[in-house]
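INTERNAL AUDIT FORM
Audit reference: QA-55
Scope: verify that the stored structure record matches its stored sequence.
Auditor: D.O.
Record contents follow.
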Amino acid sequence: MNRIAAEKKSVAEFVTGLLVIVLILSACTSNNEKSYQTEKWSFSIDSKGKITRWKDKLNNQELLLPDHETYLVSLKADSSIIHPSAAVFSEDDQNITLTFENDIQLEVKVLTKKQHISFEAISLSNENNIDALIWGPYYTLLNKSIGELVGIAQGENFTVGIQALNTKTLGVPHGKTMTSFLRWIFLASRM
C-alpha cells in the first residue's frame, strides 16, 4: 500500500509542477493585444504592431489571410520597408505608439465609431530619414472584387474599404509608386 501511495504522491507532485511551469510560461509570454470593435466587425493589433485578427462578427468569419504578416503601418527609409518592433496602447485605447529601429516612434490616434475605425498618424520622431508612411498592405480573404485604386475588398457577405481622409494622403496602388499616408479610415459593411 505504501508503494501505491508514494506513486500517487509522485504523480500529484509532477502534475502540480507542470501546472506551475505552464502558468509561469503563459505569464511570461502574454500577448499584449488590443482589439477594436465596431458594431459589425473587430480588428486586433498585437504588441509588435501586427494585425492579428480582422473578423466579421455577424457571420463569425475571419477576414485576415493566414500566414501573411499584416502590419497596421510600416515606414519606408531609402529603399527599405521597416516594420514596427513594438506597439504600446494608451490606457484609454485612443493612441498606439509604434516603435521602429533607430529609435523611431510613430504615434497613431485611433477613433472607433459604430460603423468604422479611423487611424491618424499624429507624430513621428526622427523623421529625417523616413521617406513615407505605408498603411498596409492588408491581406484579406475577401476576393470576390478587389479595387486597388479605391481601396476595397469584397467577399460574398462582407466588404471592407480603406479611404483617405485628408489631402496629405496619396492613394496609389502599393508597389507601383511609393505611397505616403497620414490618415485612413477603415470601413466595413455587411452586404
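Auditor finding: record pair retrieved intact. Residues 140 and 183 are 20 Å apart (CA to CA).
Action required: none
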